[in-house]
Amino acid sequence: MDTWLVVGLGNPGASYAGNRHNVGAMVIDELAQRGGATLRTHKARARAAEVRLGTLPGGAPCPKAVVAVPLTYMNESGGPVAGLMNFFKVPAERLIVVHDELDIDFAQLRLKLGGGEGGHNGLRSITKSAGTKDYLRVRVGIGRPPGRMDAAAYVLKDFSPSERKELDFLLPDAADAVERLVHDGLTTAQNVVHAR
């Protein structure tokens, strides 16, 4: 059974842990917890764990996946991702990147294959290091900054208290979306996730 690589983007360190920009890493924590796994430091400059993504009908185990969070800053995510792809022999078509998305309303999820980076430095770094834009993305909506707030400042702020309550639903939904992508493929997963 082929291994998948699911990477959640964020910045390392406790001061960034609750930032909007770190929602991708939060989803990986959810997936690791579901798989009963602990993320451990990997030589590719990432924290990673091997899990099974849910169970198939009849209780058969699902495909193997490596869930990971780069230990570098967001704009250098590509090196660790390429390192993990090489180490676990995962091609770009089995790479899923979970990241925050300004252009989607808070708590909305969108799935896509390839496309531009939309000014997202983590995606730009991965595209450069992986040598392709054609990898799957789980885009977790964080909404636009209020008023005239700079987007760069907004993504590095923690979720508001009301948003934090929503995270209890959003993170499991995003983890479900990752599992659907692996089990059902992009089109079927989009039909379910985008209908919400």
UniProtKB/TrEMBL annotation:
CDD domains linked: PTH
SUPFAM superfamilies in UniProt: Peptidyl-tRNA hydrolase-like (SSF53178)
Residues the record marks as active site: 21
GO cellular component: cytoplasm
Localisation per UniProt entry: Cytoplasm
Site feature (Discriminates between blocked and unblocked aminoacyl-tRNA) residues: 11
Residues under site feature: Stabilizes the basic form of H active site to accept a proton: 100
Alphabetical list of Pfam families matching this protein: Pept_tRNA_hydro
Entry EC number(s): 3.1.1.29
Catalytic activities: an N-acyl-L-alpha-aminoacyl-tRNA + H2O = an N-acyl-L-amino acid + a tRNA + H(+)
Keywords per UniProt: Cytoplasm, Hydrolase, RNA-binding, tRNA-binding
Any one Gene Ontology molecular-function term assigned to this protein's record: peptidyl-tRNA hydrolase activity
BP terms from Gene Ontology: protein quality control for misfolded or incompletely synthesized proteins; rescue of stalled ribosome
First-listed, main subcellular location of the protein, grouped into a coarse class: cytoplasm
Record bears the keyword Ion transport: no
Keyword ATP-binding listed: no
InterPro entries in UniProt: Pept_tRNA_hydro, Pept_tRNA_hydro_CS, Pept_tRNA_hydro_sf
Binding positions (tRNA): 16, 73, 75, 121
Transmembrane stretches, start-end: none
Assembly and binders: Monomer.
PANTHER family: PEPTIDYL-TRNA HYDROLASE
Summary of the function given for this chain in its UniProt record: Hydrolyzes ribosome-free peptidyl-tRNAs (with 1 or more amino acids incorporated), which drop off the ribosome during protein synthesis, or as a result of ribosome stalling.
Family as reported in the entry's similarity comment: Belongs to the PTH family.
Protein name per Swiss-Prot or TrEMBL: Peptidyl-tRNA hydrolase
